[in-house]
């Protein structure tokens, strides 16, 4: 039987050969998953021999990762804002930069929230988990994505406060009854001509529908803004994630839609990441 340290060394070398970014990190995450140990305690288990059946499982995962299958798809989970979310190929992989949107939203109170294009539900469910008493709705055009969101909602015991509905943007809402003091979205914002330059993990394994509008990357923002007046309460906030080069274009769309106090906020890497604006009070 191979020791864990020897397996980890082989796996790291294989991922490095495949030009996987940060191969040591991914090799450790996958080993911790296979051995069912906390990642932070993996070092304690490395001198021990690994069961041959688990070795086969681990090396198979390493080969899949070498093919650039995302780690989250291999282990079925992704950590986001301190919680684990189920992730499948039907939803976007929650990313650390999206936590910027969470931080921006949490700077002000809200009681009702609408998450357009909810995907895994990570934004909606995180916001509700962080704000006891708040309620919200998540919409998505994809039945498969909503199935993942349902699972995550139930795992976080948020059934009573999170309503999930199938439909494109506002289509699943009642224009006479469904109004919110906060609307959020991480929509498909990658321009079609930028798709070839994405990493293989994103380009080949994440749902294209959630990545690009097959146009200039701004279609979703126009759709969100066009239906805003029927669903965002006066004084309510719209907060969206954007691509790093879209700050000026999206903030201009916000201003043209009559939103006030429009701001572009960078993520921790200094890239434009979030645009927010407030609907004026009548």
Notable traits:
single chain; 9 strands; 13 helices; seven-stranded mixed beta sheet
What's a concise summary of this model?
Helix content is 40%, strand content 19%. It is of the alpha/beta class and 282 residues long. The strands form 2 sheets. The protein has a 7-stranded mixed β-sheet with strand order 5-4-3-6-7-9-8, with helices on both faces. Strands 1-2 form a two-stranded antiparallel ribbon.
Walk me through this protein's architecture.
The protein has 282 residues and is of the alpha/beta class. The protein has helices spanning 4-17, 23-35, 42-45, 52-66, 71-75, 99-105, 122-130, 143-155, 200-205, 208-211, 219-226, 228-231, 247-256; strands spanning 77-80, 83-86, 112-116, 135-140, 162-166, 180-185, 232-241, 260-266, 272-278. Helix content is 40%, strand content 19%. The strands form 2 sheets. The chain has a 7-stranded mixed sheet, sandwiched between helices. It has a two-stranded antiparallel sheet with strand order 1-2. A hairpin with a 2-residue loop joins strand 1 (77-80) and strand 2.
